[in-house]
Write a structure and sequence with these properties.
Length: 536
């Protein structure tokens, strides 16, 4: 498969030029969702798709299969001559169209909606959903690039249907920018999971038993990412309703698989080739995006990653209360396989003084998190207080192992920033007594006094509303900039500001950024803060 090989080569070359990780980035949250599925800290996304056969306890449902199908249908309207369509979440508005029959799409969108945020578009989540499904079912690692932008309305039709002729299906894949070999591989890789629902496609399954539980599968191992769908086709002995169906008109897999005289199918019969080819075509599929979108480099798992979970003023404003986690990748061959003898946080204040503080291995759930592909992570925790008078500039992480001490200074930037210029106020609270289905947040920030005199305008909140959308199950993220006003209370070194955000109660759990703009044009921000749940 020369085109697949050249794609792999291109991606390998792209990977060489990756920049060193500098914390924080706008994709930190996504990297968490990608790898933290169980253990000490977990992000809940993996629960929805593990194990491979899981279907939210709904008869006939296999979530992994639905997520993969959703990614294909969203992408399949792409037109490479215009650069329009592709993986852009337009499927949100297209679930009523005949080519998107079944509940798979709205199920998938309902699964992912709670993860959608100003940093997580629905289309990036659909791409992640494909990656997670394939991983959960024992398939290959599919590299994940981010930066997809969501469509705001339905796109054109264009998903191939089982009754289409081979010429029509080939023309569709050609429009998507995919070759005949890629078409065959993509259909085989997709149809190794799941099956055909009799309720939605009785013409294919036969009218005898139309029920939620009657879902004839594509192969005999529908919960394993393996080439059984290929083997059964080549041996002419199987259960695929799109190959062995009584209705020849809807045997689209049979037509697609034979499109190049079975050359590709014979190659895919080898388990290792099946996996590597599926990784290539799936990666290509999720990277089919509108030509106006530029995707990031593939997400790399971070070896040492800090999480400044708490950084706030204590009640009298004399101390910063700090809770800092450090996550060390401990995956065999890829991280710290034997636990370090110590993990030390070297704190630099704004007067130039340094203090070394020991982080302890977290104890809850063994202090470890687990992800797909046998990924493991060890967690270290530092809970401390730092004097406000001296300020908190940044920290370095020292890791001592039998091989010596490693000092991490945030990719050569000199340290991981505390960012003490703007702090989230502990008084922030939620008022649920509002009218018209809304809730109101009182959001506070503490701004360092020396910055207040340099302010250009007032401190602001960038609040992400999760607005319900007519005709779509996923909310739309609408970001509102809210001005803050100074409040009378203050402490030595900080002045307090308050802003109010009113938002639909259905989307109250969301995120916001706090920020100030200085006269020199520089912005100081504290970002991606979770809305409070404490009552006002
Ligand atoms: C010629 C192209 C294709 C046709 C005509 C086709 C047709 C179908 C049909 C009729 C179903 C049954 C849906 C249901 O009952 O819920 C189905 C299921 C499925 N398709 Fe395709 N498909 C095609 C290509 C693909 C591709 C390229 C992928 C993925 C890359 C894919 C992934 C899936 C998956 C995972 C299912 C199982 C869904 C479930 O069990 O809920 N399909 N396909």
């Amino acid at each position: 498969m020369s085109s697949l090989r050249s794609l792999a080569l291109l991606l390998a070359v792209t990977n060489v030029a990756k920049a060193e990780y500098v914390w924080p980035t706008k994709y930190d949250h996504f990297e968490d969702m990608l790898v933290m599925h169980s253990g000490y800290r977990r992000f809940g996304f993996g629960d929805l798709v593990v194990p491979c056969g899981f279907g939210s306890n709904t008869v006939g449902r296999q979530t992994a299969a639905e997520w993969v199908r959703t990614a294909f249908h969203d992408m399949a309207t792409f037109d490479h001559t215009t650069g329009k369509g592709g993986l852009d979440a337009s499927i949100m508005y297209e679930t009523e169209s005949g080519e998107n029959a079944g509940t798979a799409f709205n199920n998938t969108l309902s699964d992912i909606w709670e993860f959608v945020s100003p940093r997580t578009s629905v289309s990036d989540m659909i791409a992640l959903a494909l990656v997670a499904s394939v991983a959960s079912c024992g398939g290959p690692e599919v590299p994940l690039r981010l930066g997809r932008i969501d469509a705001t309305e339905a796109g054109p039709l264009g998903v191939p249907e089982p009754q289409d002729s081979l010429e029509t299906i080939q023309a569709d894949f050609d429009r998507m920018g995919l070759t005949t070999e890629e078409m065959i591989a993509l259909v085989a890789c997709g149809h190794t999971l799941g099956g055909v629902h009799s309720e939605d496609f009785p013409d294919i399954t036969g009218p005898e038993d139309v029920s939620p539980s009657n879902v004839p599968k594509f192969d005999n191992t529908h919960t394993e990412f393996d080439p059984a769908v290929v083997d059964e086709y080549l041996n002419n002995k199987g259960i695929n309703p799109l190959v062995f169906g009584k209705n020849e008109t809807t045997n689209s897999d049979k037509r697609v698989f034979a499109a190049d005289g079975n050359v590709t199918m014979h190659k895919l019969a080898d388990a290792a080739t099946f996996k590597s080819t599926c990784a290539e075509v799936f990666e290509k599929m999720i990277n089919v995006v509108p030509s106006t979108v530029t995707l990031s480099e593939p997400i790399q798992l971070i070896k040492v990653k800090p999480y400044l979970d708490t950084f706030q003023l204590n009640s009298d404003g004399s101390k910063f209360e700090v809770e800092l986690h450090v996550r060390l990748r401990s995956t065999k061959g890829k991280g710290y396989e034997s636990p370090p003898s110590s993990v030390t946080i070297d704190v630099l204040d704004r007067k130039g003084n340094r203090t070394s503080l020991q982080a302890a291995h977290a104890t809850l759930k063994g202090g470890q998190s687990y992800g797909f592909f046998s990924e493991t992570f060890d967690w270290y925790l530092l809970t401390t207080e730092l004097g406000v008078a001296a300020g908190a500039e940044s920290f370095k992480i020292h890791i001592s192992t039998s091989e010596g001490e490693e000092v991490l200074d945030n990719g050569g930037t000199g340290g991981y920033p505390f960012n003490d210029g703007v702090i989230s106020g502990t008084q922030s609270c939620l008022d649920t007594t509002g009218t018209q289905g809304n809730v109101t947040f009182d959001l506070y920030s503490a701004v360092r006094s020396d910055l207040v005199q340099d302010l250009d305008g007032v401190p602001w909140i960038s609040f992400a509303h999760r607005m319900p959308q007519q005709g779509a199950v996923t909310p739309r993220i609408v970001v509102e900039k809210i001005s803050m006003a100074e409040v009378s209370t203050s402490v030595d070194g900080y002045k307090f500001f308050k802003g109010t955000a009113t938002t639909p109660s259905s989307g109250w759990s969301t995120r916001y950024d706090l920020g100030i703009t200085l006269k020199n044009g520089k912005e100081v921000t504290r970002e991606f803060i979770r809305t409070p749940s404490t009552s006002c």
